[in-house]
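lol forgot to send this yesterday, sorry. struct tokens for the thing we talked abt
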């Protein structure tokens, strides 16, 4: 029965005191449509667990987003999201026409990235995975991997040290598939690898070994750790 499944979810995670809520309740709490909540689940912006054909959402994720007062709104298209991120960091993305760049700069004069962070979730599809611990360093060293997250926040200039955090990386779809096969990566609710799969036409904008500072900050904004979120907020508001 549904009640039994919910009981099982609570039993499996009771050691970390996780509470769950339905997508309908999450939508009502956040002032969003159920479809928008499902989009947030799909992108990894809201942690979820599938039980009996429906998704349950972590209540603390919903409370954190509601407490931040983050505004709702339609997500930006992926290329526009990345163009905003790069422009905010002082870089000009290649292949974007002058009129579009002017409009995006106007957006940045009116808003900071912290207030827009939910609309920038289209920048990648998050996949939470599990690898053997001995493979983590090799995954980070693979070609086509652009490192991000708390593990590399210090390298990005965010003043956070978290060497035991999951490996996080931006990759294109082909690289994601190659890594999944080579290292037998499997979906997990206790991930030690988080791949952020880039949409087509964006990977060429990320040329460094570590992702742009503000992209890393946006990833930290999804973290449950208070220190990580504080570092993210400081960078993104600035």
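and heres what i got for the seq, position by position
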């Amino acid at each position: 029965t549904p009640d039994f499944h919910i009981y099982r979810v609570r039993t499996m995670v009771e050691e970390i005191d996780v509470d769950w809520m339905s997508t309908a309740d999450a939508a009502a709490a956040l002032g969003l449509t159920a479809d928008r909540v499902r989009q947030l689940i799909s992108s990894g912006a809201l942690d979820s667990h599938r039980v009996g054909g429906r998704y349950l959402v972590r209540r603390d994720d919903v409370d954190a987003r509601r407490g931040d007062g983050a505004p709702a709104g339609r997500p930006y298209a992926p290329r526009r999201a990345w163009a905003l991120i790069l422009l905010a960091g002082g870089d000009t993305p290649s292949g974007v026409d002058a009129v579009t760049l002017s409009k995006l700069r106007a957006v940045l004069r009116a808003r900071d990235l912290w207030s827009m962070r939910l609309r920038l979730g289209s920048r990648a599809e998050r996949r939470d995975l599990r690898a053997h611990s001995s493979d983590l360093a090799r995954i980070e060293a693979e070609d086509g991997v652009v490192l991000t997250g708390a593990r590399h926040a210090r390298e990005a200039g965010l003043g956070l040290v978290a060497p035991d955090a999951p490996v996080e990386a931006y990759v294109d779809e082909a690289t994601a598939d190659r890594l999944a096969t080579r290292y037998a990566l499997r979906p997990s609710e206790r991930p030690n690898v988080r791949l952020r799969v880039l949409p087509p036409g964006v990977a060429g904008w990320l040329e460094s070994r570590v992702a742009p500072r503000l992209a890393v900050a946006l990833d930290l904004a999804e973290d449950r750790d208070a220190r990580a979120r504080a570092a993210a907020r400081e960078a993104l508001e600035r």
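The beta strands are 20-22, 48-51, 54-58, 125-130, 146-148, 167-171, 186-187, 193-197. anyway ping me if u want another try
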